[in-house]
Design a protein that fits this description.
- The complex is a heterodimer of chains A (620) and B (254).
- Chain A is α+β, with helices and mostly antiparallel strands.
- Chain A has helices spanning 2-12, 50-53, 61-80, 84-90, 95-104, 122-132, 136-149, 151-156, 159-171, 291-302, 305-327, 339-366, 375-399, 401-405, 411-418, 428-456, 459-473, 494-518, 526-555, 560-584, 594-607, and strands at residues 176-179, 195-198, 204-215, 222-233, 236-247, 253-255, 269-280, 284-285, 329-330, 333-334.
- Chain B has 254 residues and is an alpha/beta fold.
- Helices cover 28% and strands 26% of the residues of chain B.
- In chain B, strand 4 (59-66), helix 2 and strand 5 (84-89) form a beta-alpha-beta unit.
- The radius of gyration of chain B is 21 Å and the shape is globular.
- Classes of the chains: A alpha+beta (620), B alpha/beta (254).
- At the A-B interface, helix 3 and helix 5 of A face helix 2 and helix 6 of B.
- Chain B: It is found in: Mitochondrion matrix.
- Chain B: One of its GO terms (cellular component) is electron transfer flavoprotein complex.
- Chain B: One of its GO terms (biological process) is fatty acid beta-oxidation using acyl-CoA dehydrogenase.
Chain lengths: 620, 254
């Protein structure tokens, strides 16, 4: 059974590689360690890890009071002192506004108090981001500074580095930037060419190379730079990536002029060049050669907040747009009386609800002691929120029609600012592959373990697996324990919970059959991986809303009946979408267009143009 | 002059919120509505903190009368620079009928207890627009008052106050201890920055009840009914002055 060989080999390797065939069979890797992954991984086995996500995470009353206290001045500042139109038009954030943000303390939200920061949790960070996201340029500037720019020092720096750099970064006296991307290395981050060579005396590295698309590039004083370094592994000299803290003051650092961007125009994005920049060896973050892992950790840890940012933005859009829809009249009725307009508001409300639920569920999991690895969940939040945000901005603009298309209203700016979301912090394409492969690799490991047992003759294992397969093939109802005696989902949501359980169950079998059918080559089947990712993203979203709504009903939050409505509507939609995706993943599925899609793409890409004859052509 | 300043802060419905009258016409909807510190109280706190920064006074004490949530308002004052807070707990029916007379009795008692040199209040609250508390407090204490202050300067044993009055600006010099009420142009209140909010967590808020100060809360007022302002009616255009006079006579206005 070659499935055994494949699964065992999958289990042995801790890295699953996504190959980039550039003529040479050099394999670059998307790291997919299944470390202590939190919740989503079990969905790939058709299981729901209830205790991770039920009940919905709660914060103590004192913390809630504190967050409310924090929110008030930030909201006030953004409504009174931030002129987003001006920032967009001038393509810069004024020094006064930047100063105001620094004084408010927004440059060091997650830096511990002992280093001068606010020391807030992921949950509080997500809450503040709901407000900060009202201006895209400011949001990106702050995120580039603290979610990625200085994060390396926070999570992997030693005490000396933290003491030296964090205080001025927390106050905003110094601004940070994250320097990984190069002209030739975007998604393929491991292929970067910037190099750091150790000096003769071994006291410092000389940094040479250039980076592009660096947010805060023009004003950053402290940069986290990733470069290749030569290390010795078992006597063999190899090139591995290391992370460095580079000060502009070291000399040799030049920044280009700001890029003229479609959106987030107030954020300073530019090229950075390093010309023999001397970096002391004390400034290596973590271990020499351990830079790639640090880069991925940094990026993984920042993503979850996009959920709350987008939710905050959509909530604002709902306010602005509904004002218009209620007053504008056509055909003697206000716009809000028309079905097609109402649909748009429902879309925005559902999206905001799901994004909030996912973001705070993920943040809540990340805030638990023991620091569980929520990189899968964070990636899913990012994909859902970036695409949902883009669609909602567009629909909000649509409600205003021609007016929405002009610069007199903020909608076109929101649309332009939103467009970057599916691109940066890991393109949604890469993140989908990452989510699908990580989950399937985990499932593969577990399944191969089971198969080993069966081969050894473990009777109970064999009988258990067989009876499970028999049950589901005979159409027995699926019960994963979400409702019923030990319920975690409130009974008002029973129908949605059942749909969710059904989805999870079939998804598990589908993953199993995909692993069996494709084996190792699944890594190249992007169209399949995309569908797998879309299903599991929907499943995580359903989990989040079921968990949140159950809590809201149980404690009697205001307007919880609206939450029930939103949850049931979303779960219904997601259930049928998932079914369609899963159907396409079955063997020889007639609903699956992938083979044809590939043929079309091949023809077009080979000739680099549209190849059909013009409809007006004749042959005689 | 070293000494203590008492600042009164009131928790009111946020100025940006659209007010709605309760269906039973007994008041306005406050449940789930955004509340914040009365803007004129913010100006009062700012002035007190400025005096402390200029080292003209030693301690700023923020006081609020109300239910549990009033503590949030005191915390904001602490985050702006007040040194400690006093929360006088008033809730339920007592809170619904709490008005300037009762509050000024409480403030007067506290001013005596805390041996305050100055009591600074906002000139009025944006929910009831009474513009009475400062004046009543001064009267109960038999202290001089500097109301509608747009400029305050402390001199030895006295306060010079520039007051905004209908005719323009009036400058007076009064003895301390005194009661001042802040008008719009007195200063621009600072933002409570997040680091300051965190520092404020360590500052103390003392709890007490009106009975502890010997204050009787019974109200002499009874609210009969609360209504929305009448909808604005359409106007009328007239051609001549005679028409105008005629129409005014018809409506009984002349």
């Amino acid at each position: 059974m070659n499935m055994t060989r494949f699964l065992v080999s999958l289990g042995k390797r801790t890295l699953l590689c996504y190959a980039r065939h550039v003529g040479v069979s050099q394999r670059r890797c998307i790291k997919t360690h299944s470390r202590n992954l939190a919740y989503a991984k079990d969905l790939f086995l058709g299981q729901v890890n209830k205790t991770e996500v039920f009940p919905y995470p709660e914060i103590r009353n004192e913390e809630l009071e504190e967050i409310k206290q924090f929110v008030a001045p930030v909201e006030k500042f953004f409504s009174e002192e931030v002129d987003s139109a001006k920032i967009d038009q001038e393509a810069k954030i004024s020094p006064e506004t930047l100063n105001g943000l620094k004084e408010l303390g927004l440059f060091g939200i997650m830096i511990p108090e002992e280093y001068g920061g606010l020391g807030l949790t992921h949950t509080m960070y997500a809450r503040l981001n709901e407000i900060i996201a009202l201006d895209g340029s400011i949001a990106v500037t702050l995120a580039a500074h603290q979610a990625i720019g200085l994060k390396g020092i926070l999570i992997a720096g030693n005490e000396a580095q933290k003491k030296k750099y964090l205080p001025k970064l927390a106050s905003g006296e110094h601004i940070a930037a994250f320097c990984l991307t190069e002209a030739g290395s975007g998604s393929d981050a491991a292929s970067i060419q910037t190099r750091a060579t150790l000096s003769e005396d071994g006291k410092h590295y000389l940094l040479n190379g250039s980076k592009i698309w660096i947010s805060n590039g023009g004003m950053a004083d402290i940069m986290t730079v990733f470069a290749r370094t030569e290390v010795e592994v078992d006597g063999v000299k190899k090139d591995k990536i290391s992370a460095f803290i580079v000060e502009r003051a070291f000399g040799g650092v030049t920044s280009g002029k700001p890029e003229d961007k479609l959106g987030i125009r107030g954020s300073y994005t530019c090229e950075l060049s390093f010309d023999n920049v001397p970096v002391p060896v004390e400034n290596v973050i973590g271990e020499v050669g351990g830079g790639f892992k640090i880069a991925m950790s940094i990026l993984n840890s920042g993503r979850f907040s996009m959920g709350s940012s987008c939710a905050g933005m959509i909530k604002k859009l709902i306010e602005l747009t509904s004002e218009y829809a209620a007053t504008r009249k056509q055909f003697n009725k206000s716009l809000s009386e028309f079905g097609l307009i109402q649909e748009k508001f429902a879309l925005m409300a559902i999206n905001a609800y799901v994004m909030e639920s996912m973001a705070y569920l993920t943040a809540g999991m990340m805030d638990r002691p023991g620091v569980p690895d929520c990189s899968l969940e964070a990636a899913m939040v990012k994909v859902f929120s970036s695409e949902g945000g883009w669609i909602c901005c567009s629909e909000a603009l649509q409600v205003l029609g021609g007016l929405g298309y002009t610069k007199n209203y903020p909608f076109e700016r929101y649309v332009r600012d939103c467009r970057i979301l599916p691109i940066f912090e890991g393109t949604n394409e890469i993140l989908r592959i990452y989510v699908a492969l990580t989950g399937m690799q985990y499932a593969g490991k577990v399944l191969s373990g089971k198969i080993k047992e069966m081969k050894k003759g473990n009777i109970s294992m064999i009988l258990g697996t067989m009876s499970k397969k028999l049950k589901t093939s005979l159409g027995a109802s699926v019960d994963l324990g979400l409702t019923g005696k030990d319920w975690v989902v409130h009974r008002s949501l029973t129908e949605s919970a059942k749909k969710f359980e059904l989805n999870v169950n079939i998804f598990g079998s589908t993953v199993e059959s995909l692993l069996y059918r494709y084996g190792k080559s699944i890594v190249d089947e992007q169209l399949i991986l995309k569908k797998v990712a879309d299903v599991v993203i929907n499943l995580y979203a359903m989990t989040a809303v079921l968990s949140r709504a159950s809590r809201s009903i149980s404690i009697g939050l205001r307007n919880h009946d609206q939450e029930v409505l939103l949850t049931n509507t979303f779960c219904n939609e997601a259930f049928f979408k998932n079914n369609y995706l899963i159907v396409q993943l079955q063997k020889h599925s007639p609903e699956n267009n992938d083979a044809n899609i590939k043929k079309i793409a091949k023809a077009v890409l080979e000739s680099r143009e549209y190849i059909c004859s013009h409809p007006l052509e004749r042959t005689f | 002059m070293s000494g203590r300043v008492l600042v009164g802060v009131k928790r009111v419905i946020d100025y940006a919120v659209k007010i709605r009258v309760k269906p039973d016409h007994t008041g306005v909807v406050t449940d789930g509505v955004k509340h914040s510190m009365n803007p004129f109280c913010e100006i009062a706190v700012e002035e007190a903190v400025k005096l402390k920064e200029k080292k003209l006074i030693q301690e700023v004490v923020a006081v609020s009368c109300g239910p549990q949530q009033s503590q949030e308002t005191i915390r904001t004052a602490l985050a702006m620079g007040a040194d400690r807070g006093i929360h006088v707990e008033v809730s339920g029916k007592d809170y619904d009928s709490l008005g300037p007379l009762q509050v000024s009795k409480i403030l007067a008692a506290l001013a005596k207890k805390e041996e305050a040199q100055l009591v600074i209040l906002g000139k009025q609250a944006i929910d009831d627009d009474c513009n009475q508390t400062g004046q009543m407090t001064a009267a109960l204490l038999d202290w001089p008052q500097g109301t509608f202050a747009s400029e305050v300067s402390l001199e030895a044993g006295k306060v010079k106050v520039v007051r905004e009055i209908d005719g323009g600006l009036e400058t007076i010099k009064i003895n301390t201890p005194a009661v001042l009420t802040a008008d719009l142009r007195l200063n621009t209140p600072r933002y409570a920055t997040l680091p300051n909010i965190m520092k404020a967590k360590k500052k103390k808020i003392a709890n007490m009840k009106p009975a502890d100060l010997g204050v009787d809360l019974t109200s002499r007022l009874e609210v009969l009914r609360v209504d929305e302002p009448p909808q604005r009616q359409a106007g009328m255009k007239v051609e001549t002055v005679e028409d105008l006079v005629g129409k005014l006579k018809e409506a009984g206005k002349v």
